[in-house]
Amino acid sequence: MKNNSWYLLLLFVMAACSDGNTVDTKDPVVIKITETDSVIPQETSAVQYAFNLNEPDKTWELPKGLEEVSGNTWANGQLILIEDERPVLYIIETIGDEMKVQKKISFAKVAGENIDIEEVTIAGEVIYAISGDGRLFEINDWKGSPQFRELKTGLSKSNNTEGLCFDPETKKLLIACKDDSGLEDEKKSTKVIYSYNPETEKTEGPFLKIEQDDLESFSGEKIKLNPSSIAVHPITKEIYVLSSKGSKCLVVLSREGAVRSVNFINDDLMHQPEGICFSDKGDMYLSSEGKKGNPGKLFLYSIKQ
Fold this sequence. Notes:
Largest sheet: 4 strands, antiparallel
Helix content: under 10%
CATH topology: Neuraminidase
CATH architecture: 6 Propeller
Structural class: mainly beta
Mean pLDDT: 83
């Protein structure tokens, strides 16, 4: 099957170059050829996943209240979105070109303080949300009578914790720091993803370190990565890191931290990409804040094999 994989890749390269033009390194296309994996049938062990970030399959304008959308997650056929000014879960249903808010759930009582909610994820039947200062919120029984509590991660405002997702491989939460890595003697440009264990309610050592030099060496471009969201691909189990500030891009990493792809995002399409998640079958959803009073947007990239 490996020979077939290289043959598919060769066909793609020939097609990309057939018009006589060189391939632009900033062309935001993810080309993935995955070798045999236990979750992929043997007869389709060479699978190409391609997301053209400039051409979403569907685009929705988000309802009022989600102009500053800051995160999204997939929950059994529904999408859960949050925005960064109020601790509220928006349970969203998309039917064709229509989108509606099914339910709103408040999950924190805040008096006399600003709370900067940055990301949301789901682990089993439990929803987690994180604020930029490292506070983690656990929401139970969200379909019935929601109960929530606040957990400490040991991370702080200086880390600027904007990325959060559940890792089905380790059964832990991954937390991405947009700013300070929290590690001594590390470069300022080094970005860190931590692992948080819901069982022990403790943040463990760095899950991944992302080096700017590695990204620039891979892409041949100057890159300033500031993670705004992260997700684990449900099939390949690779780590997807979305960046809005600095370089507007989507980076794909192996679980060991090797760079798989660096994909730049068109500023005209997404003002401020803040959220990424996958459906169970691998469709990708990106959310972006609105601009100058315009609504936030949600983008669907359907899996293509």
